[in-house]
Specification:
The protein has 3 domains: 2-87 and 178-207, Periplasmic binding protein-like II (D-Maltodextrin-Binding Protein, domain 2); 90-177, D-Maltodextrin-Binding Protein, domain 2; 210-277, Alpha-Beta Plaits (2-Layer Sandwich), CATH 3.30.70. The chain has 8 helices and 15 strands. It has helices at residues 13-22, 53-59, 69-75, 118-128, 161-165, 189-208, 223-229, 258-268; strands at 2-7, 35-37, 43-48, 64-68, 80-84, 90-97, 112-115, 133-136, 152-157, 168-177, 179-183, 211-219, 237-240, 246-254, 271-277. Strand 2 and strand 3 (43-48) form a beta hairpin. The chain is globular. It binds phosphoribosyl ATP and zinc ion (ZN).
């Protein structure tokens, strides 16, 4: 039976459980448990600290894991990156004191940089030929410059508010991260099949995000023109209406194009337009 590791508590916990639940997989909310059996899929769920997930997957303690790409890159254990999961976006950036006279990467030569991501930073500095002192600290990296522990920091940034409230300014965006599904590279046939079932469900969920199901009535004579406006998985579905000369047309439209398409369809004479949220899109 597949074992998947998710973060026990923290920023990725809720969305990991949410994604599994959308995929029809019920997961116990109990945060005190280390492992529990999922409902609706032959799978066990392990609740771990995010830092431990890459190693657990590499060692085969878990077959799969949901974790930030930042942790995967930092730990560098041999795991397969199976798919991106569409949440947990952030970046790891270099930041300096707001008043510093920053003049490009050379600024960091001989400087002390505090971080919880020493490996990613060391690789970046090596690539750029910068010789700096990397100080590894766990937690509250953003206060290191203020207490005189470092001249700069390399830390996770999302909105940027934490940097601002600590008098820091982001000067180099080094690494872009998001939540990913990782897998042990030596899964047997059976577990590979189960993983494929799981990623099929995840992909259907991700693809349906931002998509709307639209239906409307349209004069039959405008159908050909309407079809050029409406994309579909193949083409739009067209059904006859009881009223002669009219049809009902159904299609899936990407949210970003929704209003522009609807305006064009209205101009063609479309009426009774309904826009519905799409739960799943199975190709
Ligand atoms: O206990 P455990 O070790 O499991 O959790 P943790 O405390 O190490 O991690 P957690 O829960 O904070 O984050 C888990 C993962 O979420 C990270 O590894 C990233 O992949 C992802 N993620 C996304 C973030 C953020 N956004 C984020 N903003 N992780 C941390 N932050 C922190 C950051 O460290 C900084 O303190 O938020 C602050 C910056 O946020 P802004 O919005 O002020 O810029
Ligand atoms: Zn952690």
């Amino acid at each position: 039976m597949l074992r998947i590791a998710i973060q026990a508590k923290g920023r990725l916990n809720e969305q990991s459980i949410g994604l599994l639940s959308e995929a029809g997989i019920g997961v116990a909310e109990s945060k005190r448990k280390l492992i529990s059996r999922a409902d609706g899929f032959p799978m066990k769920v392990l609740y771990l600290r995010d830092d431990d997930i890459p190693q657990a997957v590499a060692m085969g303690v878990a077959d799969l894991g949901i974790v930030g790409l930042n942790e995967v890159a930092e730990k560098n254990f041999p795991v397969e990156r199976t798919m991106d999961l569409g949440f947990g976006s952030c970046r790891i950036s270099l930041a300096v004191d707001r008043t510093a006279d920053y003049n490009g990467l050379d600024y960091f030569r001989g400087k002390r940089v505090a971080t919880s991501y020493p490996n990613i930073l060391a690789r970046f500095f090596a690539e750029k030929g910068i010789d700096a002192e990397i100080h590894t600290i766990k937690g509250s990296v953003e206060i290191a410059p203020a207490v005189g522990m470092s001249d700069a920091i390399f830390d996770i940034v999302s909105s940027g508010d934490t940097l601002i409230s600590n008098g820091l300014v982001e000067v180099e965006k080094v690494f872009y991260s998001k939540a990913v599904l990782i897998a042990n590279p030596k899964l047997d046939e059976q577990k590979r099949r189960e993983t494929a079932q799981l990623t099929f469900r995840f992909n259907s969920i991700l693809e349906s995000r931002g998509m709307k199901y639209v239906l409307m009535n349209l004069p039959q004579e405008k159908l050909d023109e309407a079809i050029t406006i409406l994309p579909g998985m193949r083409s739009p579905t067209v059904l006859p209406l009881a009223q002669e000369g009219w049809c009902s047309i159904h299609a899936v439209i990407c949210e970003s194009q929704l209003w522009e398409r609807i305006e064009r369809l209205k101009a063609l004479g479309a009426e009774g337009i309904l826009v519905l949220t799409l739960e799943n899109m199975i190709r």
